[in-house]
Structures are given as structure tokens and as C-alpha cells.
Amino acid sequence: MASNANGSNRLNIPEAKGALDNMKVEIARELGVNLKQGYNGDLTSREAGYIGGYMVKRLIEQAEHQMAGQNL
Predict the structure, then answer these.
(1) Segment 13-68, tens digit of pLDDT
(2) Contact predicate 43/70, CB 8 Å
(3) Which of 8, 11, 48, 69 is most buried as measured by Cβ atoms within 10 A of its Cβ?
(4) If you ran DSSP here, which 8-state letter would residue 10 be given?
(5) Rounded to the nearest 5°, which phi and psi values hold at 2?
(6) CA–CA dist 53, 48 (Å, integer)
(7) Is the Cβ–Cβ distance between 51 and 28 less than 8 Å?
(8) What pairs with residue 61 in β-bridges?
(9) How far apart are CA 40 and CA 48, in angstroms?
(10) Angle (nearest 5°) at CA 40 between 8 and 50
(11) CB of 27 closer than 8 Å to CB of 10
(12) What is the pLDDT of residue 1?
């Protein structure tokens, strides 16, 4: 998600929402965090941060892999 000037979050590519949601669920499962469908306000800040951090890490790894493939 990108942050625009007024501070709200929005997707630049709406079709990516499903893929990001799937990634979030997959990472939560790998980390042993109980992520439910819908509201997850009962997660601790640490649990939510772990999920978000690993999502960013995985997206960066995918981008690096993609860029390395283009440089061949």
C-alpha cells in the first residue's frame, strides 16, 4: 500500500489486494500467529509487526529476484 499526501492508505493496483491478503495469511501461519478472517484487533502490536515486517521482507526479496533476472 502506498501512503498519499493526506495520510490515508490506498492500493495503487486494486487487484493486488487479494495477493497481499493471501501473503498475510500465509506469513501469519508460518509465524504461528492466529489470524482470523475479518477483524484482528486482538493481535498484539508485536504480532502485527512481525506479520507486516515479514511481508515487507518477502516483497523486497521478490523484487530483488525479479531485478536480477532482468539483468541477465
Answers:
(1) 888 889 999 999 999 999 999 999 889 999 999 999 999 999 999 999 999 999 98
(2) no
(3) 48
(4) E
(5) -110, 150
(6) 8
(7) yes
(8) none
(9) 9
(10) 80
(11) no
(12) 46
Give the confidence band of 10 by pLDDT, cuts at 50, 70, 90.
Answer: confident
Q: Which long-range contacts (CB under 8 A, 24 or more apart) does 15-19 make?
A: none
Print the SS3 string covering 54-68: HHHHHHHHHHHHHHH
Cell numbers for 64, please give them.
530483488
The grid coordinates listed for 33 are 500467529
Q: What is the 3-state secondary structure (H, E, C) of 15-70?
A: CHHHHHHHHHHHHHHHHCCCCCCCCCCCCCHHHHHHHHHHHHHHHHHHHHHHHHHH
Q: What CA–CA distance (Å, rounded) separates 25 from 66?
A: 23
Entry pTM: 0.74
Separation between Cα atoms, residue 6 and residue 69, nearest integer Å: 36
Lookup: cell for 47: 504480532
